[in-house]
Fold this sequence. Notes:
The complex is a heterodimer of chains A (100) and B (299).
Chain A: H1 3-7, E1 11-12, E2 17-21, E3 26-30, E4 35-39, H2 41-53, H3 56-67, H4 71-87, E5 92-93
Antiparallel strand pairs in A: 1-5, 2-3, 3-4
Chain B: E1 2-6, E2 9-13, E3 30-35, H1 38-44, E4 48-57, E5 60-67, E6 72-76, E7 80-84, E8 90-95, H2 101-119, E9 122-131, E10 134-140, H3 146-155, E11 159-162, E12 165-171, E13 174-178, E14 183-187, E15 195-200, E16 203-207, E17 215-224, H4 237-241, H5 251-267, E18 270-274, H6 280-291, H7 294-298
Parallel strand pairs in B: 2-3, 3-8, 10-17, 17-18
Antiparallel strand pairs in B: 1-2, 4-5, 5-6, 6-7, 7-8, 9-10, 9-11, 9-12, 12-13, 13-17, 14-16, 15-16
Helix pairs in contact in B: 3-6
Amino acid sequence: xxxxxxxxxxxxxxxxxxxxxxxxxxxxxxxxxxxxxxxxxxxxxxxxxxxxxxxxxxxxxxxxxxxxxxxxxxxxxxxxxxxxxxxxxxxxxxxxxxxx
Amino acid sequence: xxxxxxxxxxxxxxxxxxxxxxxxxxxxxxxxxxxxxxxxxxxxxxxxxxxxxxxxxxxxxxxxxxxxxxxxxxxxxxxxxxxxxxxxxxxxxxxxxxxxxxxxxxxxxxxxxxxxxxxxxxxxxxxxxxxxxxxxxxxxxxxxxxxxxxxxxxxxxxxxxxxxxxxxxxxxxxxxxxxxxxxxxxxxxxxxxxxxxxxxxxxxxxxxxxxxxxxxxxxxxxxxxxxxxxxxxxxxxxxxxxxxxxxxxxxxxxxxxxxxxxxxxxxxxxxxxxxxxxxxxxxxxxxxxxxxxxxxxxx
Lengths: 100, 299
């Protein structure tokens, strides 16, 4: 899957995933597997935006704005981040409504 | 029948339990511990459904199994067997000699703590002392020196609260700690608090005065080895989660544990201490100063 294709998708954080952010870390729990995952500050920021908007493109824009990252680097990092979360079942592809 | 409080449970039993117990706390869920025999436990057991948890204690395998009807069987290999009813209020205990120190210790530690966890409390693998500010828990890997630090904190004027396992529950103001049984396992030799009960596996089991009531958890000390890889990083929620007992492992309880750990990290000071950076008394002094409770505890 290319970076471009995953950035065009929409995602949700499923009910079996809970997360909590602190100053320096975000901790994510997958209730289905019992696995804990730790994210650093930037990872926690990206997950927060993704959970709120479902839109990786918006995550890219916010990372560029908040952290001053170059656009290409931000696109690569966010695509890699989303792929990793998908593989760990911490996010799911959003169901598209009929006719859309 | 004697009435006791341990890990948030009101315990009724005809078994004489060691330690200087305080009056049981009102309103706690109750469990009756009944001396029994292996055949009665076999009759009560509904049959294996799934494993609960397995560990090592008293130099033997300790196993918790869940039955098909919601009951549980708890076995200290070749020594003792327990059966907890599905309702969680009746615990049968069978052993060749129920008054043996190793049997009583496993009852007061792994068995009652498991009952408490099944009742709905969470727990941290930690010892704890009480201070005028609240309870300080000391967590760390086995052999890190938790017991020695607890003994040192007692020497500095803190009161005993729990040994090895601290039962916890969330409350409006944070996290509440529930007293453990009034017994401690301490390194053999040297000055030990309380009244010696037995020497078990190179350690000394002693009776101490129990804590009277649940108290707010106000600090956690993470005792670390210098090679533990944590360095000078501030304690994280993951490091706290690593010390919570993950039983039962249902999604609902995993969520409850996660929420408790979140509250704990957000509201309770957590400090990391290098276990090799001083004697137990020096570590105790260092911890009390860093937590800002030095004067209250030592004067």
